[in-house]
Amino acid sequence: MAARTLAQRKQITAWLYASPLVIVLLPFFVAPILVVLIASFLENDGFGGMVRHFTLANYAAIFGAELTWRLYLSTIKFAVLTWAVTLVIGFWVAYFLVFHVRNQLLAIGLFLLCTVPFWTSNIIRMISWIPLLGKNGLVNSVLLSSGAIHQPLEFLLFSDFAVIVAYVHQLTIFMIVPIFNAMARIDKRTVEAARDAGASRFDVMRFIVVPLSKNGIALGSIFVLSIVMGDFFVVKVMSGGGSASIVSALFEDIAVLQYPPAAASAVVLLAIVVIMIALILRTVDVRKEIAR
Amino acid sequence: MSERIDTPNTVSINDDSTKPEPGVDATRRTVLKGAAAIAGAAGAQAITGFPLIWAQDIKNIELRHVGVSYSVVKAIGDQASKDLGFKVTMQNLDTSAAINRFVTQPNSVDIADVEGWQSKLATRRGVLQGIEVKKIKEFENILPIFTKGEINGKVVSRQGISPYEAMYITKPDATELHEGVTEWATFLPQVYNADSIGYRPDLIKKPITEWKELINPEYKGKAAILDVPAIGIMDAALCFESAGEIKYGNKGNMTKSEIDFTINRLIELKKSGHFRATWTTFDQSVQLMAAGEVIVQSMWSPAVAAVRVKGMPCIYAPVNQKNGKEGYRGWCNGMALMKHLSDKKLDAAYEYLNWYLSGWQGGFVARYGYYSPVPSTAKKFLTANEWDYWYEGKPAKETILDPYGVPMEKAGAKRDGGSFLERVTNISCWNTLMDEAQYMNKRWNDFKAA
Fold first, then answer.
1. ipTM for the predicted complex
2. Is A271's Cβ below 8 Å from some Cβ in B?
């Protein structure tokens, strides 16, 4: 038997290493996506049936509708606002934990404390804002009784504001964890050396902490952006049904068994989220980060 | 919210069988007792074409009855299991998740709980089997609203998809509905009501009897509407019709231009800040009203009762038909047999359907304001006081309890909307699935995104 070349053997080993992931991804990810992709090119009989006839009408309807642009605009607005707020909060929480809490045990303790709110379901966490922000809610009654306002603030609940509050509450942890992780790997001696060499706090931040946390920020951004882009429940509940998202519109299609248009919307959304993530990944090498 | 979670309400029989069952004999006795009770209730009527299944054969059968939470209720399934000797498991999904499951995973369901319009969809998809009418003992006693499309000689409205319209097929495996009475039914009506508006009488000083009050500018920022497109559009149509802004050919099956008019007006109202919110679940509507966020909204009768139980005054507006306008929006859920049922399981399913119409369930749902299609059997399971209050619209002589025994109305209270007959004869349209459903959905999303 001819001996296999080293390269061949390496290739087989590589495939073996990858096989568990492939075995999971093929049936649970690739196959469903393919089904959705195929469905998006089929015709719809109006009764939940799909006619096996190739059509581009579903896509034409999506790109031709003003609704699509408005849905994307609204969803991207939520995504960007949530991303900005969670980034600021997440970054500073992580920074505090890593650089200001000297005792490592305490830092890890505080870090775990950040996860406590996440022990309850995110639905409960979202709903619990409603009695707080409502017209007769806690915030309004405190403000009213203190004389700060004379009319209850209506923008607090069933508004874009409420949606952002709920998202930030739910998703900040997804920023904290990767940024904390990236920052914890920064060699403290680098920071000390920089200070000794006369760098200001701002310079340390600019030239050391931020560049070295970039990977964590990128990972956190991917989590936050992709979750917001794919959500419909928070928008639905916290906006009081006043705002729609891409997925909520798609869900209405499914509710009346309009599968092909829903599939086409899903494919378009997937493509856009993939592009977003690809752009983020271009700025950092996550692989390097994980291997470090 | 909880409606979105697909939780089986009860443990399946298989889990039970691993545990020592304390009273298999007791169970059998209950079966016999239950059977005797049913036979008794049926009176002199002969039980025909109805195979009696032995307890030994059926005790391993499990029927999965799947549908929305306000129609498929755990307590009813538990009682059925007790009376029938086999296991009935109730599973709740929201309206759209339910129809999706019936169509895409028909074998995971035994009894599908469907509305008229869903029955039309499911029939078309061929996931149901026809119900043989002559095997249903109480069929003759089902109100003619459902079986004949009329009540007291008056034709019931056909705007939207009336239960009668969705009820018949010509053969068990037909995929097209049939106009007119046949031997085969697509679904067996089990619970229904007439929906209208709920409002806070302490904040709205005049009595509301017309849908247009929901869009009255006086209540700007304090109104809400139902956000299930197929139902919400009907409520909106009732409002605009009531305000004299439009006359629909058929509210339940609008033309594109009628849809455009309705949605454009909704968008205008939304932009002017008229709607504080929209709601999709029972609980949300109760919360909106109880928390003082809204003072008028489209609402369901038990939701109004739930607000009152929280100590907040709330009235269910009587919107009787007048001048060819107004009227309630009716809905009806029924049980359909899935195609895969056969042999003993099918027999068990028929027993279950018959049990369902034999009165216990009718009495149960009456206590939260819904109706049974066979009031004559429900009456046997209600006290005279309850019957008078819920069905006759008379003032309660003593405290009215809800199905779980919690006091909900004091003596002297009177049901909003009057008697059963007054309500159902004033149904002017039904929940629907329009021919232009796809277009309507798209436009409804325009409203949501505006």
1. 0.80
2. no
